[in-house]
Amino acid sequence: RNFTAFMKKEKELEEIRRIYSDEELRKSKADSDPFKQFSKWFDQAAEAEIPEPTAMILSTASRKGIPSVRTVLLKGFDKEGFIFFTNYNSAKGKNLSENPFAEALFLWKEIERQVRISGRAEKISREQSESYFKTRAYESKIGAWASEQGRLISSREFLEQRYKEYLKKYPNGDVPMPDYWGGYKLFPEKFEFWQGREHRLHDRIIYLKKENKWEKIRLSP
C-alpha cells in the first residue's frame, strides 16, 4: 500500500517536470569574463520581473565539514566578488570563521537558469558595513538588535518584547550598527552557468580561476 502511494506520487512528480527549450548557452558566445556573464544574466532576471532575483542560496560548512544551507540576499557585486550581510554570531558566521569556503546558488527558474559561485568569503570593513546599515529601514535596524540569530528562544512573545525594548532604546531612528553584524564578500574561484535545454541536455559552462585568469569549460549535464 505504501509502495503504491509512493509510485503514484513519483508519477505525479514526473508529470510536472518542465520541458526546457527557450534559450541556449554556447561556450563560444559566453563572455570570457564570468562577472560580465553573471551581470548579463542578472539583468535579464531582473527585467523578467522574477520575484527576489537577488535571493541566493548560501552553503557553508563547519571545521568538521558538516554542511549548512540557507537563503540570503545579494546586496552588491563588482569585479571582485559578491556581498551579503548577516549576524556574525549566526550559524553561517560561525561556519565562516572556521571554514571560509562557501558556495552560492542563484536559481531563476522562470527563465530556466541557475548560477553557482564557489570561493572564499571574507568580512568586509566595518566602514562598508556601516555605510550599508545606514540605508536599511528603521524597523530592520531594530530587528538586527532584537534578534540573536540562531539562538533558542522561549516564544514569539519573547522576541516581540525584545523588539519593543529596542524601539524604546532607539526611538528617533538613529540606530547604531551592532558590533556582531556586518557584511561578507564572496571571492569566486569557480562559476557554473546552467541553462535548461530540451531532453535534459542542459547547457553547463564553468569558469575556473587559474593564475588570475579564467578558463571556460563545458560540462556534460
Question: Could you walk me through the main structural features you see in this protein, from its secondary elements to its overall organization?
Answer:
With 221 residues, this protein is α+β, with helices and mostly antiparallel strands. The chain contains six helices and nine strands. Strands 1, 2, 3, 4, 5, 6, 7, 8 and 9 form a nine-stranded antiparallel beta sheet that branches. The protein is elongated. The mean pLDDT is 91.
Brief write-up:
This protein has 221 residues and is an alpha+beta fold.
Tally of DSSP helical segments: 6
**Globular, elongated, flat, extended or rod-shaped: what is the shape?**
elongated
C-alpha termini separation? 35 Å
Any low-confidence stretches, pLDDT <50, length ≥5?
none
**Backbone CA Rg:** 21 Å
Number of distinct beta strands: 9
Question: Which structural class do the helices and strands define?
Answer: alpha+beta
Strand content: 25-35%
Please summarize the sheet with the most strands: 9 strands, antiparallel
Order of helices and strands: HHEEEEHEEHHHEEE
Kindly state the mean pLDDT as a whole number?
A: 91
User: In percent, how helical is the residue content?
Assistant: 25-40%
